Amino acid sequence: MQTNTKILAREFEYLAPKTLDETLSLLDNYKDKSARILAGGTDLLVKMKTIDLKTDYLINIKNIPELNFIDTADGLKVGAAVSLSRIERIGKVKERYPALYEGIKSMAAIAVRNMGTIAGNIGNASPAADTVPPLITYGAEVKLVSKRGERTVLVEDFVTGVGKTVIEADELITQVNIPEMKKNSGSAFSKKGRVKADIAKINLAVYLEREGNICKDCKIVLGSVAVKAIRAKEAEGLLKGQTVSASLIDKIAKKASEEIKPIDDIRSSVEYRTELARVMVEDTVRIAWERAGGEL
Questions:
Q1: DSSP 139-186
Q2: Model-level pTM?
Q3: Which domains, from first to last, does the chain contain?
């Protein structure tokens, strides 16, 4: 049923637990029903209004203290209810995790970032999610908790397809964990959309570790070019262990553009996305290398 964007057409039960344990009990009780988590609601509520997304129970976690924290002591740990705008204001994020900072800054309008969360951006499992490529390059994990226990899953493995993840019906993303960045490392994010607030035609993040003029390690992750954000592993293999030069960067950019699987849609053609990927990878690798202290 197609609805307008102003009303919620179906009835549901709204629940506002005050603690994490209470939330987990609700998820356990309603695991066989359609229970959905409300954190920022910037994607969920739109879907409920426009595509009649089935929801029996809406569980609001915005005001749960255990989910409202940022810990910068060892790497970066972000609670599931923390807004994107709050993350971008953390000095360490801009300084040590510039790809994530740039990914968040590229998202939508300020009003949306004031509501949306990083856990929601991951859990929505959109191929165009702007925080996912940076998080994958950093080796970030999501912590999943249920009444049965807890586990951590790499962001790279968490999303399995469009709108699909490995999360179970009784599990909740409670936090996102990003390791401490190594010395002589650099990262960068790039995005191309029709307008600034639009979703990406292509987005990508690059992370590099430098040892002299040699690339010790790297990750190149592209979004909006397949059913989920993907690593350009063949391009990474050409760069790892090699002396970095302008000609090598040109070579890996071409290889990365050959690895993606873009589609034709209303926003771009396959040919456009393929060529755009090549140019964007070239530019973003250069920026990440320079941020790692490297020279060309």
A1: T-EEEEEETTEEEEEEHHHHEEETTEES--TT-EEEEEEEPPPPTTEE
A2: 0.93
A3: 13-60 (3.30.43.10), 65-178 (3.30.465.10), 185-291 (3.30.390.50)
